[in-house]
């Protein structure tokens, strides 16, 4: 049943997470009509969904916050260097209340379809409950990792106990004293495993490829430290603006080959023991993330540290990635992850040797090398198996552009975008977070601030100049994809089987690599966006009503 469209809006934002909330605030300041719709029952996006035990930042808290309001910066105290989920969600709720955003957010509202109406120069957006909204412009802030994926194994859903993805951990699920299996050892798996290991009766970790981790170095922030941090917020934000990924860590200009091996090892031990967050990953000698040789040496160093922490040498070897070097996939921050495997109640199962045959009513059945099977008797199965990343949130909405062309079909061979913010055939649709955008790979609040600030300035132009139709040019799209492909290829990260390269789409590991993210760095991306403003949007076609003969 389709209801009558509600009166038209100027701007509809999809998603009330870190990005959508900031965009809403900026557009309210401009005085245009704007509303957020979000499928969740609460605001906060990622920080609303990911409630699994142990969920927290891998970014330093004081860098993972909005910088737009001095008052907000003055009022909010961070309690830990790497804030847990609950603290972050409270922060976002505090922001929503402080800036009176809630009246402009419709929760429990899932967008199902969005259709471009050329005659009316607007989008007709249909929600899951049949409500329809007309909006001149639609801004996408659905997140990068908001469509969870599950292994393709028989029996999924037939388990008699509790099955959950880390992304939708039930509030009433307490694993104390239970027999639990966790599948997946990415950033989420590492956090949940470490948190629950000593609470559960039995923990079975099912690992496909091992993933590199580095010590997180979390600590409480004392009131004195908070005061010191607050006094240097300006410098902190300025610094983060100039680092490639918007983190507090910056690649060392020195090459690993410029120093002696002894010096390298001293430096790496220091980063491992005393660094925090992504120091070893993003704050290392520049060549360790770009050149195979230096990367191999660093990987061997980290492997040795793992061997020192895990008592059983066979288990240690399993925990050391063999298919990719350190930092070639997103490195997970850990706080005692390796020591978990020294506990008697924890077992590591190598899925490469013993694949899952099926999920059964009582647990998981593994195939053994000799043709037999092994049954894991379980109370809880946790899927920490990741997401249909970056494009998944777009695929889930039926976007229909010019002449009814479907976005999902246009992107079948991989996404193509105009400077990471638009797609040809989809006028007046903007992606604040999406493929090939600089927002996607940065420390998130830092990255999205660049795009939201660009969008806000662009809305100012749209409103001042009476722009009614705004579409990326195909030539610019081709050039952007080519540029992203080229610049990404400089980093080893672009060649791994990571979600960064679309390798986990539908968990089909032979999927073609895709140009999913932009790895050219936040400062370069910010400059590229600014160029568009300065040069009058050469990559886009802007039309007024008069241009279209509609006056
Ligand atoms: P990730 O990083 O995509 O990790 C998913 C994990 O699940 C990873 O260990 C995968 O192994 C594993 N996986 C995926 N599919 C399967 C199947 N079918 N069978 C067994 N194991 C599987 O997701 P996260 O949620 O941990 O982290 C996502 C981002 O959140 C992270 O990058 C941060 O930015 C925050 P694989 O390595 O593919 O063999």
UniProtKB/TrEMBL annotation:
Keywords: FAD, Flavoprotein, NADP, Oxidoreductase. Pfam families: Pyr_redox_3. InterPro entries: FAD-binding_Monooxygenases, FAD/NAD-bd_sf. The keyword Transmembrane helix does not apply. The keyword Secreted does not apply. This is NAD(P)/FAD-dependent oxidoreductase. The lineage of its organism: Bacteria, Bacillati, Actinomycetota, Actinomycetes, Propionibacteriales.
